[in-house]
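Exercise 7. Predict the joint structure of the components listed below.
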Amino acid sequence: MLQRLEHVLGIENLTREQITFILDQSKPFQEFQRHPLKKLATLRGKTVALAFFEPSTRTRISFATAAARLGADTMNLQAESSSLKKGESLLDTVRTLEAMRPDGIVIRHSSSGAPHFVAERLEVPVLNAGDGTHEHPTQALLDALTIRDRKGKLEGLNVAILGDILHSRVARSDIQLFGKFGARITLCGPAMWVPRELESLGPNIRREPRIERALDEADVIIVLRVQTERMHEPALAAEEFILGYQLTSERLRLARPEALVLHPGPMIRGLEIDPVVADGAQSCVLEQVTNGLAVRMALLYHLVGGAPVDAPHPAKERSNAAD
Amino acid sequence: MRVVEKRQLLSAEEIGRTLQRLAHEIVEKSGGTKDLALIGVRRRGVPLSQRLASIIRTSSSVNVPVGTLDITLYRDDLSTVAHQPVVQSNEIEFPVDDRDIVLVDDVLYTGRTVRAAMNGLFDLGRPRRIRLCVLIDRGHRELPVEATFVGSTIQTSDTEIVEVRLQEIDGEERVMLVDRIS
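Solution:
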């Protein structure tokens, strides 16, 4: 019996079955993106608050488009991240959202745990669009969908994650997700960005400072962006990073022949990734974007749609309504 | 919710004969099969549409394309149920524009499923014509919807349910009338 989804705050709280369910439910929405007319009335009359307290273009547009294609209205909140004490600014956030009575809240915040804070205080479904350095669950889900489509499965893969892993919530969500499917995960980047504690995030994780060894036998390579806005210590010189950690064509050849290259975006061509690789046959970056829309539509459909919790379940009522 | 079986409406043979007749009617009343296409409404409209296409292929040597339509996203009752129903993909490999489409479903009742199916089709293109083929018409329409091709018309009451059981989905083949008991 699948536990009903109420919020999506992180991959860490999702079971393997729930993740599989979300990916399966994303498939009809992938097909939907090919319709001539991309407008449903499924969530008509519902309002989704897009509360982005950290700058975002891609994720925000993706969620906004997903909501619009489902027929929902959106409330666009774009606030600068507050430098006030964490507790106070979050409480204000919650009160503001509550006053507008949305049917769902998509939240991105610079504080890890902000979506959980909101979910505990409101009776509204909450979708985490990225919280601090904690998680970015929809990114991991769209990564998983992309990989599952190309590889046919998620189990037992060798996944290499490259770059600034310390500051990456995408990396943490990916590690959680692929760990649940029995992946062997290799973390590779400059030492200060790949601390030992990350190995304890899952059963089969190792650090490997040399990229050539990290890529050996890899089925999937996730290239992370250099997070200049999240770094407080002096940045690594670009030339040093490129020399040690850029994913070039030659380095890509060290991985398995059909290895997939993923990047959460935006890419800095010539820094963490060689443009030839970014545009090559093994690169999945554009599919990731399309799949992001499908995943977000599936999540909004299941979380925001429907009546209050005590309404009847259609499958439990036998009738001549469509099954 | 508990139900009790009241009586059988169609046996396996009767279903078979009805589908034969419906398939022939569809060909006769289409003025040519060039643009004809069958689209089965999930779930039980799907095996019915496939069987109809197969009969048409065997008897008229015409390959009528068949597709599958999932209407979950187009239902008008989603705001009344707490758990969103599971969505499935359509499977329509041919363009819908200018097609002479016959929608196929097992039971015609309120007409809301058909309304949703038409919305789904219009999102895919602009058919030249849409007609409806059902195995059973049980009355109680709540919308102005009619079927051109009807296997059998049956008078029913509000508490009754017409259960079409097909081999492909239910592992048996018959149509039953059941009643809800409180």
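Discussion. Chain B has a mean pLDDT of 95.
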